[in-house]
Amino acid sequence: MPLSSSQLQKIRDQLERSQSWLQEIQSEIESCQSQSTLPFSSPALTKPSRQSILFYRDYGGFTGGHLKVWDYFNHVTFSQNYSPSIYFTPQSSWDKNNPWLNLEQSFILSQPLEYPDLIFMEGLDWQLLDERYKHNSPIPIINLIQSVRHAYPDNPRYPFLQYKAIRICVSPEIKQYLEIQAKVNGELLVIPCGLDRTQIPESLDWEQKDDHILIAALKEPELGQTLKIELEKIGKKVELLTAQLTRTEYLDKLNRARITVFLPNQKEGEGFYLPALEGMAVGTLVICPDCIGNRSFCISGYNCFRPHYRVESLLNAIQQALQYSQSQVQEILTHAKQTANEHNLLKERQAFLEVLDNIREIW
Q1: pLDDT of 181-226, one tens digit each?
Q2: Which of 54, 150, 349, 361 is 20 to 30 Å apart from 122, CA to CA?
Q3: Are 145 and 68 spatial neighbours (Cβ–Cβ below 8 Å)?
Q4: Global pTM exceeds 0.70
């Protein structure tokens, strides 16, 4: 039976109280347990009483989207009621950057479960789903929404919105965009993207960092090259990243740079844009243009610079950052570190487990 608006609001309130509670106990947790010991496996995964959650992946190479699905896969292992398993397409790559590479083989399926208790979808996973689950599925489907692209009528993800699902948006901007731009079948919830601090290197002191400008331009290499040329004209030392690095190498680059210019997808926008948050965590001065999904946590002048997504605006922001005094820089870096700490994986996990605990009522 569908929930009333008051019942749905009660569940949303539970999520908010849970996140508030986590904020209160976070410092206590950190004093008892270093961040490096946050567990990513459960000792009781194979309890017979646990219900199954089926994940799908077509892994063609590392992306932030795959990484977040990996996070949610691990969140399930902390549930008292559910156990995850995952099906990979035959063409999926098993390179060293695949987050599931060292996962116990018992959780990797050669064929999707025929009768799972829950299904977890993301991105284009709907293309892999059995037709019987697409229209009025008898079992709950959770759909993680990581991009505003889902709301674009010409995007292949758009038709999937007609299928009933409990959709978890990784930012409030995605939820707002979907509510305005598209007809969505099912409940829309927001769980802000959490950062896995166990993977983040300890931040170098400002004096230890390289005195150059790093441009992270994997998604916009031509724009990155344009910025590099313009900055070198005025004598600035620039390092341009346009090729995929290992995650360790990439985070080390961010950590060593005093200033990093992030270039998200300019045409389609982003649903959250985790790289900017990673930059805040390692103490590089973040310059990240408006890409829709970063508006809730990239607060220009407070924890970063968020100019309009134009060459001249980016160059002006870089010049402004270079002119900041040491005290101004440290104030922004302090706020940035606080922002990164607030978006932690423990909060994300607890919020998702709240959804799982109420999944039948929400569905």
Answers
A1: 878 999 999 999 999 999 899 999 999 999 999 999 999 999 999 9
A2: 361
A3: no
A4: yes
Asked if residues 124 and 58 have their Cβ atoms less than 8 Å apart, the reply is yes
Measured CA to CA in angstroms, residue 230 lies from 151, 214, 227 at distances of 35, 14, 5
- Rounded Cα distance, 31 and 114, in Å: 45
* Residue ranges of domains in the chain, CATH in brackets: 5-194+344-362 (3.40.50), 198-342 (3.40.50.2000)
Distance of alpha carbon 166 from alpha carbon 141, whole angstroms: 6
If DSSP states are collapsed to H, E and C, what string results for the chain?
Answer: CCCCHHHHHHHHHHHHHHHHHHHHHHHHHHHHCCHHHCCCCCCCCCCCCCEEEEEEECCCCCCHHHHHHHHHHHHHCCCCCEEEEEEECCCCCCCCCCCCCCCCHHHEECCCCCCCCEEEEEHHHHHHCCHHHCCCCCCCEEEEECCHHHHCCCCCCHHHHHCCCEEEECCHHHHHHHHHHCCCCCCEEECCCCECHHHCCCCCCHHHCEEEEEEECCCCHHHHHHHHHHHHHCCCCEEEECCCCCHHHHHHHHHHEEEEEECCCCCCCECCCHHHHHHHHHCCEEECCCCECCCCCCCECCCEECCCCCHHHHHHHHHHHHHCCHHHHHHHHHHHHHHHHHCEHHHHHHHHHHHHHCHHHHC
